[in-house]
Amino acid sequence: MKYLVPVDSGNVPRRDLPHRHADMNARKYFHLLFPLLALIISGCSSVPDQSLINEKRPVTLAESSDLYAVVKLPITYNDDSFDPLRGVLLHPGKYILEAEDAGHWFFRSPVPLNLLMYDFGRIVDGTSIYGGLMISKDAASPRPYCAYVDGDNAAEKVVIWELGKEFAKDRGLKWKLSTDSEEASATR
Fold first, then answer.
1. Closest CA to 132 of 178, 172, 156, 97
2. pTM of the model
3. C-alpha torsion sign, points 18, 24, 28, 34
4. CA 8 – CA 21 distance, rounded (Å)
5. What integer pLDDT is reported at residue 47 of this predicted model?
């Protein structure tokens, strides 16, 4: 209901206060809609995966046969723990040192690695490819643990997946280096 309020120039209809208040609330919520919409859109955009790498590394053949890695259980690392799209499966077994560069050792998997593709949490595709584990000689390295595949020749490896901190936490439980048992017995 509108009230007529007398004004000096005559009777001019004006909006009452409750109607004006409702109009201001609608305007306030309308201005909040744009930041909310921006947040929703930015949240739906894809973030580049930090685990996937495509880095070619020149290597030399390894000279030591005493150093090896042992994976005790199958280990799967995915790009997202909640809704993965890609992953890599490391099979159990003895990974033999095959090559090295200035900062890393390259341990060959006893069977090909499995590169996995997911759809709604199910594995829908995969590729088996020869490769193994790249482990840093220095724990302070920016990429201490990675998965690699063979390059174009024997003097090249291609780093494809950064295993990250999860792999370091699994040391001793799911995998170990041949030198780990010597260190443990020396501290006892």
1. 97
2. 0.68
3. positive
4. 25
5. 41
